[in-house]
TrEMBL record:
Residues 34-167 form the DUF1468 domain. Keywords: Membrane, Transmembrane, Transmembrane helix. InterPro entries: DUF1468. It comes from the Bacteria. The keyword Repeat does not apply. The chain crosses the membrane at residues 33-54, 66-85, 105-132, 144-166. This is Tripartite tricarboxylate transporter TctB family protein.
């Protein structure tokens, strides 16, 4: 192993230890309970959506079967979290970095809201551009290449090859 490589590995190990040693503020019981209730609410919304889609039967599952299973799982996990909201201390308090997660969720909501109107190609491209460049801090070159390549790949796989009935431009 070269000296430069050894020094680079040493720097990486030091950075990892620094991150691990940082003091993190744990979330309190109120935050834990609010998040548990949010998970239950999300699960209930998934269940309502599943029922509106039609769940079908075990022999002939409907389009709401998968959302139903996910909703049941979310409600169960949310209840489990709510029952343990005072014991859990490994959750971290919300910080400025939490805004990145909220922004990511916001972009997904916009994506879902517009995909039905203008197809998946442009919203997928915009979503990938934002996530790679602004959240992932990738270069503009790699952001453009990966974003366009992924959208083309999604189109070829899901629209051209599998004929999945999703809204698309072409």
């Amino acid at each position: 192993m070269t000296d430069a490589r050894r020094e680079s590995l040493h720097d990486l190990e030091n950075a990892i230890h620094q991150i691990e040693d940082e003091e993190r503020t744990p979330a309190g019981p109120t935050t834990n309970l609010v998040l548990a209730l949010a998970v239950v609410a999300l699960g209930l919304a998934a269940l309502a959506g599943a029922l509106s889609l039609g769940i079908g039967t075990p022999e002939r599952p409907g389009s709401g079967t998968w959302p139903l299973l996910i909703g049941i799982g979310l409600v169960g996990l949310g209840i489990a979290l709510a029952l343990r909201f005072r014991q859990d201390s490994d959750a971290e308090a919300f910080t400025r970095n939490s805004a990145v997660v909220a922004a990511g969720l916001g972009t997904m909501i916009v994506f879902v809201a517009v995909i039905e109107t203008i197809g998946f190609e442009l919203p997928s491209l915009a979503l990938m551009l934002v996530w790679l460049r602004f959240f992932g801090h990738e270069s503009w070159r790699s952001t453009a290449i990966v974003s366009v390549g992924a959208v083309v790949a999604f189109y070829l796989i899901f629209v051209a090859a599998l004929a999945v009935p999703i809204p698309h431009l072409f």
